[in-house]
Amino acid sequence: MMEATTTIDLGTCPMPNSTDNVATEAQEHIETPEERYERLLRRARTEDLSEISGIGCLYQSGVDRLGRPVVVFCGKWFPASNVNLDKALLYLIHLLDPIVRGDYVIAYFHTLTSTNNYPSLQWLREVYSILPYKYKKNLKAFYIVHPTFWTKMMTWWFTTFMAPAIKAKVHSLPGVEHLYSAISKEQLEIPAYITEYDMATNGLHYFQPITQNTSS
């Protein structure tokens, strides 16, 4: 004798679509650029960044002749090929966030760098997109000291197609002494290898700076 089977009427209620739920949740959690920067800033203030700070490639060195903070970046000491670039970005934010609330300048020393020191364009583009407007607006000058043909080409390409807002602020200088028009020697702390290379390449006292203040 066969047992009667019991059927359950599920009705016409549609089953939830898990794909739709995931898409909806993803939309709800999309960060704005401001939220993303604030999240990274919180990480920069709490995480251990001694791995990057100990390299010594990025630091503040006094002020220029107009009283604006000077940020120094030594390309030779940045091991782009074997450093944690996420940590590097966090350290950049940690150092610069309080500085960029007002006017500031950057002095980048390309002295004796190699391909191991060059971060990818994709990473540079990502960093530029993450940093808020105050970084670009309050940057008053970006000095590139001891540029090479590669540096000049990459600078032209980057400022033309990716960062036109800072193009007029970039200045390529063949030697350290050219900086002294804008930054007094006493305010500029740089590694010995830079000054030694500069003297070997350009000689002694090759440039007489104009010391009066200039407008930004």
From TrEMBL:
Pfam families: CRAL_TRIO_2. Residues 45-202 form the CRAL-TRIO domain. InterPro entries: CRAL-TRIO_dom, CRAL-TRIO_dom_sf. It comes from the Eukaryota. Gene3D superfamilies: CRAL-TRIO lipid binding domain. CDD domains: SEC14 (cd00170). This is CRAL-TRIO domain-containing protein. It comes from Hermetia illucens. The lineage of its organism: Eukaryota, Metazoa, Ecdysozoa, Arthropoda, Hexapoda.
